[in-house]
Amino acid sequence: EGLVMLAGAALLTTLIVWMAGKRDAAVKLEHGVERHLAPGGSHGVGLFLLVFLSVVREGVESVIFLGAARFGTGSGSLWGALAGLAAASLLGFLLFRGAVRVRLGLFFTVTNVLLLLFAAGLVAHGLHELVEAGWLPALVDPVWDLNPLLPEQGLLGSLLRGLFGYNGNPSLLELLGYAAYAAVAASLWRSLARKRRTPV
């Protein structure tokens, strides 16, 4: 379980890094689509394959991430996944109909921050599983216990656990892993975003 969670965090990290370098991709994508679908352009087969393969890749990533999240939250992640799928479908429908306009720069920034926190939670929970398996030392276990105030099994605790890796009684290794991953990933993301804005 711990290795699957760490692998999921690694995949998410590559996605975050890729997105940080591609913030202007929306404009390029729109121009490319218009060029390919315009009269005299290609017949759209390449565009279809791009969309098809992108959806397949996202599906594979979703299976990995939901598998990792399931280890952390049990059957609660299924309901969260279904709610997320319903919300994404509704948003996609509204975007397609033109009822909702989204500033893509802000959207990608918020998405990257949420993905970063989710990946940090996967790292922390992966480390927790490796400590339980006896592969790593906990250092201090637990550092604190917030479960009487905010139980992991409660509604809010389960939501925070599934989204951000909340643990009411974390070990020191989990806290260090979460903080180190978040700091390094955020620094890398900011560096790439700054580099993208700097004229060459």
Structural overview:
The chain has 200 residues and is an all-alpha fold. The protein has one domain. Helix content is 74%, strand content 0%. The chain is built from 7 helices and no strands. It has helices at 2-21, 25-37, 45-73, 76-97, 104-132, 155-164, 172-197. The model has no long low-confidence stretch (mean pLDDT 80).
The share of residues in extended strands comes to: under 5%
Helix amount: over 70%
Beta strand count = 0
Largest sheet: none
Q: Helices and strands: which structural class? A: mainly alpha
In DSSP terms, counting alpha (H) and pi (I) runs of 4 or more, how many helices? 7
Which short descriptors sum up this protein?
200 residues; mainly alpha; elongated
List the helices and strands and how they pair.
Elements: H1 2-21, H2 25-37, H3 45-73, H4 76-97, H5 104-132, H6 155-164, H7 172-197
Short structural description:
The protein is an all-alpha fold. 74% of the residues lie in helices and 0% in strands. The model has no long low-confidence stretch (mean pLDDT 80).
